[in-house]
Amino acid sequence: MPIGRQISIGMLTHPFVPQALLALFMLVEGVKCVRFRYHRISNALLFSLFVYAFYAHVCVDVRYVHVMLNNHVDQAFHYRVASLWSHHETSLFIWLCILNVTTHIWRLPTDLSRFRANALGLLNCCFTFYMLVEANPFATTPFTQLMTESNGLNPLLYDMNMVWHPPLLYMGATMLFTPYVIGLWLHRNDDLVLVRLIQYQVKIAFGVLTFAIALGSLWAFTQLGWGGFWFWDPVETASLLPWVAALIVFHNKPQMIQKNPWIAGLPFGCVMISLWAVRSGILISVHSFANDVMAFWLLGAFAFFALVPLIVMLSKGIFSSIKITFMTVGLVCLALTLVLLLLALFLPVIFKFSLAPSFFNVVLLPVWCLIALLMAITPNRFGLWAPLNTALLALVAYLSFYTYLAPAYLLLGSVGSICAGAMLPLLFRKTHMALAHIGVGLCLIGFASYSDSPSEQTLTLAHASLKNDALKHGSYALAYEGIRHFKEPFKTDQVARIRVDLLAFDDSVLKTLYLTPGKQFFHSSKLQRAKADFGLLNNRILLISTIERLSDTQIAIVFHEKMGLLWIVCGCILMISGLLFFASRKSLNVFFKFKSIS
């Protein structure tokens, strides 16, 4: 290659180029938030910055400090891409990129579109300023290192859910920005068509958030070795804030949002609160980032300025002419859930104490039971009495199988079955609503069964070649059949093969399940992680989250027997299907109407 071309390519790929583009992007966005100009230049700059970030991580350019700390040349391609959102700085940049993409999905009238562009420019300018002074995604290393000396991802992040879960979570959160802007616009220019658009967009964002949170729960259960899908970790609790706020938005009547437009901005306000709480490091969590004073004040200021317009609109009128209905009571219950989650999130930080998961079970269980019962009453609005019969049949069927549960969990599962049963007659009249509410009922049944599952047990297993090899544990017999090692350039896997037999009353074997949990040792970071394995046997999920070799003939495992997970999976699928597929069709109808307006 000619020397001149080598020099030009070297200049284009120099680490200082994206930093200069980032500063230029902040300048252009600052101008755009005042006057609607240079939006094409701004989009081109952001796209160029994304290309630089993608190139640096995929090609493992160790001149960038975050590539050096979170990537490795021997990682698979999808893990090199996933390293883009594996750390605070570049994940915030990806959040900003997704925000700009999801904001421009929906076409709006010309004046509203310009207002949205100004608001987006202000937000882009603020976050770019924060990245330049505090969290630079293109920061460079002060010395030269080889590609093979990089660290690679944190061992806990080597999972396919790492590829999908964070971007989907960012997508669901950023899709709430346009409803926030339309809510500000409605404060002076109320339009019922815009209110319907807000509700359809929030439904789609809620469906994406549900999918992302469900993937994260699956990740926690299957790969992290925790043996569960939810632990009321502070960051997990923070992810529920916009989720519950979105429920409040699309369950309100359009006329109520038209009179109180601050409701439309509530979900994105919760997104900003969650962003501040998680990324400033004030929450002590396995998910949170390091504590930093500058991040606390800057991100806190962004959250404050996002909430100020909502507070101003709230002060001018709070729910004028409220009519007490079942829907109103349900909305009050959702608002109470949101307040309880906020208190549980921030009071421990302020007063320096911790909350046990049992606190959430005690406080939120009555509220959820009431919400489920109110959902079961909803079909009566359509003049149907058949839901009463199907609800009773569902309750009888549930009680015939789950009478052994603790009273509190039996109550939760019972109201879940009533809710799901009452919605069955509405499947052909209000399909999307019926599917979503049936999904909620199935999830409640799953939560009740899962919460009453046996606790984890540490067991010592003998090799299958020995006499009396199988260890009897409840209705199962367990034995391990050896350990194998798989060495790769980047890591070494230690995988155990464990046989689990389902026993009859006479100890004869009915079914057999083989599980292969293991450990992974990463050469670059000198770290290891447990890799869990699970399977379905006797309509229950059996999981082995940890193994420890004691000798050539013995191994110690952590064994979990979980009930109700299939109900939760089916419930999440129904909720996502009802909200995404049917709500998106109506959203597109509203979208096409604006072609004649703009």
What does this structure look like?
The chain has 598 residues and is of the alpha+beta class. It folds into four domains: 11-151, no CATH class; 159-323; 367-453 and 565-576, no CATH class; 457-562. Helix content is 59%, strand content 13%. It has 20 helices and ten strands. Strands 2, 3, 4, 5, 6 and 7 form a six-stranded antiparallel beta sheet that branches. Strands 1-10-9-8 form a four-stranded antiparallel beta sheet, with no helix packed on it. Helix 16 (357-377) packs parallel to helix 18 (407-423).
Write a brief caption for the model.
The protein has about 600 residues and is of the alpha+beta class. It folds into four domains: about 10-150, no CATH class; about 160-325; about 365-455 and about 565-575, no CATH class; about 455-560.
Shape: flat
The tally of helices reads 20
Q: Which segments are poorly predicted (pLDDT under 50) over 5 or more consecutive residues?
A: 1-10
Number of domains: 4
Rg of Cα set: 26 Å
Q: Give a quick account of the main beta sheet: strands, pairing sense, barrel closure.
A: 6 strands, antiparallel
Q: What share of the residues lie within helices?
A: 55-70%
Cα separation of the termini: 51 Å
Number of strands: 10
| Mean pLDDT value | 83
Measured by DSSP, the beta-strand proportion falls in 5-15%
Structural class: alpha+beta
Name the helix and strand elements from N-terminus to C-terminus, one letter apiece.
HHHHHHHHHHHHHHHHHHHEEEEEEEEEEH
